[in-house]
Amino acid sequence: MKTLSTIVFILIYHLGFGQISDSNNVQQEFTDIELALKQPDKVLRLNLSNQTLKLDGINWSKFVNLEYLSLKNDHLRELPKELNALSKLKTLELSGNDFSVLPEDFWKLTSLEEIFLNDEKNLNLEANIKIMSKMPSLRILHLENDNLNSIPNTISSLKYLEFLYLNNNKFIEVPKEIKQLEHLQFLDIRDNKIVNPDRSGENLNFGFMIKL
């Protein structure tokens, strides 16, 4: 069981994680793909959220320094496999789309640390876990509001996962499969239908912090 000091460290660490970019990088956030393509090597953050996009034909390999990409709420039915050329990408925001499975070649995103797959009603979680298991840097996974009531056993293949977000789903207990995640430090499972929060979490000795 982790000590209080360890838990405090985890919380502080988490507040900073996913917000790695400094103020200079935030100022360089682009929201227009055409403008970004004019100087792709300068683009560190590309926020294309809430847009109607045609992503076919974009040469993503030009974005050699891109660390953050958001395609949130773009209602994409499939993702361009060419995104796997983003060798420095650390955070990928894909929530609120209509696809079910990530492209097979997404394992090539070897720098990816955090992926948002929340608000995905068509999500095939087991198929996506198979793909994400090949991502060596993946540490944070968002599955909020995905209408989930169970977790496949294959979750154990996400060997280096440290933070998992399952809030706003339909779980009635903390999934025991999550205990297989050896490096997990933090689980957020708020706003579910947990029947007995005390028994579901701490008393089962999961070994990581659970936010109920």
Features of the shown structure:
single chain, 212 residues, alpha/beta, 17% helix, disordered N terminus, LRR_dom_sf
Describe the model:
Strands 1-2-3-4-5-6-7-8-9 form a 9-stranded parallel beta sheet. The protein has 212 residues and is an alpha/beta fold. α3 (33-38) links the parallel β1 (29-30) and β2. Residues 1-13 and 15-26 have low confidence and may be disordered. It has helices at 4-16, 23-27, 33-38, 125-132, 197-200; strands at 29-30, 45-47, 68-70, 91-93, 114-116, 140-142, 163-165, 186-188, 209-211.
Put the structure in a nutshell:
Helix content is 17%, strand content 12%. The protein is α/β, with parallel strands linked by helices.
* Poorly predicted tracts of residues: 1-13, 15-26
The secondary-structure element order is HHEHEEEEHEEEHE
Strand content: 5-15%
Structural class: alpha/beta
Number of helices, where a helix is a run of at least 4 consecutive DSSP H or I residues = 5
Termini, distance in Å? 17 Å
Number of strands: 9
Radius of gyration: 18 Å
Domain Disease resistance R13L4/SHOC-2-like LRR: 43-123
InterPro entries: Leu-rich_rpt, Leu-rich_rpt_typical-subtyp, LRR_dom_sf, LRR_R13L4/SHOC2-like
Keywords: Leucine-rich repeat, Repeat
Protein name: Leucine-rich repeat domain-containing protein
